[in-house]
Design goal:
By secondary structure, this protein is α/β, with parallel strands linked by helices. It has 13 helices and 27 strands. The longest helix has 17 residues. It is globular and about 70 Å long. About 50% of the residues are buried. The N terminus is likely disordered.
Length: about 675
């Protein structure tokens, strides 16, 4: 209970200022069935007792947050009646080993809230819903709710081998994310740069000499057990990963030989025993397996058998170099990565193929992953377990808050987990792509999603480094492409006039971030598909302001992946393609780049290249209509492997934390009248 008291302190510290009020429509994720009744609302701020089944830790936390002995309008005691039942009417479920059914129902009636679930974990999901309904309110409306997840695995991953996230920070994330029904933490503990899980028998693994990044930063078995218990109390399962035989240079430095040797096999057995002991509640151990040739005969089979002997199930990456996973006996789950990952029939598969936050921009990719179905299906089944939002921070960043901020991690996890709970999705991202057209159902879904998310950004998440701001009201007219012969400076008709030109070259799109060609080229559709360098496009919008105002703007034209060694722009330039931007015909100057002119590798700190890592650009809006005009050349960029043809622009307050209120974006303003 001590940990729960500590978590309660975090909750109250975050939620106590009356900044945002969560209504029924703000629930994230939205329940499958919800309706109001004619019954009396349930008052908070009074003594509340849990009756029925043994009290659940999350429900206890809700009661401690909601119940106060003074100041409430209701004098009678309130009750939460909890019971375990055989089924919830209409609930969908499928078998996934280690993940019980999460269906629950809530009936709110006067002095009693009736909670039913088919497993104890469903009580935790009900508690999450009640926490949201109680946010900054003194009562919960009379409702009937029936709810269950479309996909049973909804998770997030930290690659702490390349980077490092402290135990305290991971606890905070678990505490916050559990309130949105995230249920899995994939803990990638070992990498080339560092081995971050202490093994008592092999202290050299966590010795400073074995690390090439952040020496001395690792986790003990005691910390692992404590974190696992902390996560379990909040309904989150931890899947620890010991990556083998690839991504194991730290192991080789420490042990003097690689994993695919007789000595290495013996040592890995001991390591797996220690891992199973440190994670007694974990149903799975992830053994990696990817991106290296298997040279030791039967290596993976030996590791699989060892994990099974410890009473655990096995997860492997998919694909594995040179291995036919359809023929690899004993695997219990695969984790699909990259475009080559394909579902293996007969075992559960986790879809992470495009859910790599290290390649995401702030806005467009977030919307695209929320819009997409999960591996082509609307709900999980025996072959599709769910999805994990994966943060692979190959490129060195100054600290853990930079990792969370630059990967837009919180917003991306919640977009992914929201889709996994509610199911559906427009189409799979390989077909649906990243383009949002104004006035479409997809546009409305974007606005609905972000309205709910921003409610919690302004309350529970108000202290988290979240660069995402409202973008559903940002509209653009984009003209092109125009062949430029590789010359960024050549001009075309939008630079002279925006009227009376070839309308077949014009598209209207929505969003603070727009891809003309996506990072995954012809695989994930963008506005112009898999187009080659040698083209220019233009984008413009008008912004109405009711008064003269100094504000900020998030601006970027090359989102720098946290996995690339790309060169920073030259000072005086926004990017290495020659992109330019004007507001009211005055050119907006690029910031001074901290890494400009430097030789960049993965050990060079990624500093202010991304918009999320720097203050907003100061801008001035005149009263009335203001024109924003952008030139977007697409040419070859030596030193930049992932040449993203894209742009980001959204007006914010001076801090960059919030979108600028009280303004209107339009592609067809009436410039002759005041709004």
């Amino acid at each position: 209970m001590k940990n729960l008291k500590s978590a309660l302190g975090i909750f109250l510290a975050v939620a106590s200022p009356v900044i945002a009020h969560a209504s029924v429509g703000d629930l994230l994720p939205q329940p499958k069935f919800i309706e109001t009744t004619g019954k009396q609302a349930f008052c908070l701020n009074r003594p509340i007792s849990i009756i029925g089944e043994r009290p659940d830790s999350m429900m206890t936390l809700f009661v401690e947050q909601a119940a106060h002995t003074s100041g409430g309008k209701c004098k009678s005691r309130g009750y939460i009646s909890v019971s375990i039942v055989d089924s919830i009417p209409g609930a969908y479920d499928y078998n996934l080993a280690g993940f019980p059914a999460e269906a629950y129902s809530i009936d709110i009636a006067g002095d009693t809230i009736y909670v039913k679930s088919v497993d104890a974990v469903g009580v935790k999901r009900a508690a999450s819903t009640l926490m949201q309904l109680a946010l900054n309110s003194d009562k919960i409306p009379a409702l009937e709710i029936r709810d269950w997840p479309a996909f049973k695995l909804r998770g997030f991953m930290h690659d702490v081998g390349r980077s490092f996230i402290s135990i305290d920070e991971i606890k905070k994330e678990i505490d916050l994310l559990a309130r949105f029904k995230v249920n899995t933490f994939h803990w990638h503990l070992t990498e080339n740069q560092a081995w971050r899980f202490a093994i008592d028998e092999f202290p050299a693994l966590t010795a400073d000499a074995s690390f090439t990044r952040f020496p001395g930063k690792y986790y003990t078995p005691q910390q692992a057990r404590e974190l696992e218990r902390y996560a379990y109390e909040r309904g989150i399962t931890i899947i620890p990963e010991i990556d083998m035989p690839g991504h194991s240079a730290a192991f080789t430095r420490a042990m003097g030989h690689n994993m695919q040797t007789d000595e290495g096999i013996s040592e890995l057995y001991t390591i797996l025993e220690a891992t199973a002991k440190a994670f007694p509640l974990a149903p799975y151990i992830h053994i990696g397996g990817d991106e290296v040739a298997i040279t030791y005969p039967g290596f993976l089979e030996l590791m699989i058998d060892k994990v099974h002997s410890l009473g655990k199930k096995v997860v492997v990456w998919n694909p594995i170099h040179g291995v036919d996973l359809k023929k690899l006996k004993g695997i219990d789950m695969t984790q699909m990565w990259g475009t080559a990952g394909r579902k293996v029939e007969g075992v559960p598969n986790i879809d992470c193929r495009y859910n790599y936050t290290n390649h995401f921009d702030i806005f467009s990719d977030n919307e695209a992953i929320h819009n997409s179905s999960i591996y082509y299906v609307p709900e999980g089944n025996s072959d599709v377990a769910g999805t994990i939002s994966a943060c692979w921070n190959d490129r060195k960043l100054p600290g853990e808050m930079d990792i969370i901020r630059q990967n837009n991690m919180i917003a991306n996890i919640l977009a992914s987990a929201d889709r996994a709970w509610i199911g559906g999705g427009d189409e799979y991202i390989e077909k649906a792509g990243t383009v949002v057209k104004p006035g479409t159902e997809r546009h409305q879904q974007l606005k609905d999603w972000e309205e709910r998310f921003l409610t919690y950004k302004d309350s529970w998440l108000k202290d988290e480094p979240i660069p995402y701001v409202r973008q559903g009201n940002v509209v653009w007219r984009v003209a092109g492409p125009f062949e430029n012969g590789g010359d960024s400076d050549v001009s075309f008709w939008p630079e002279q006039t925006l009227e009376g030109q070839d309308t077949t070259l014009i598209n209207d799109v929505v969003g603070a971030g727009v891809y003309l060609r996506h990072v995954w080229g012809g695989i994930v559709p963008a506005l112009y598909g898999n187009i080659n360098p040698g083209n220019t496009a233009y984008a413009w919008t008008w912004v109405y302001s009711p008064k003269d105002i100094d504000a900020g703007a998030l601006v970027e034209f090359q989102n720098y992946s946290r996995s690339e060694r790309d060169l920073a722009p030259e000072n005086g330039q926004w990017d290495r393609k020659g992109s330019r931007i004007w507001i009211n015909d005055k050119e907006l100057q690029a910031p001074q780049w901290f890494n400009s002119g430097l030789t960049v590798n993965n050990e060079s700190l990624l500093l202010n290249e991304n918009a999320s890592a720097r203050p907003p650009v100061p801008v001035h809006l005149n009263k009335g209509w203001n024109k924003v005009f952008i030139k977007l050349p697409y040419v070859k960029t030596p030193g930049v492997r992932l040449n993203k043809w894209m742009f980001t622009f959204v007006l914010t307050d001076k801090t960059g934390r919030n979108a600028l209120d009280g303004i209107v974006y339009s592609t067809e303003p009436d410039l002759t009248t005041e709004q």
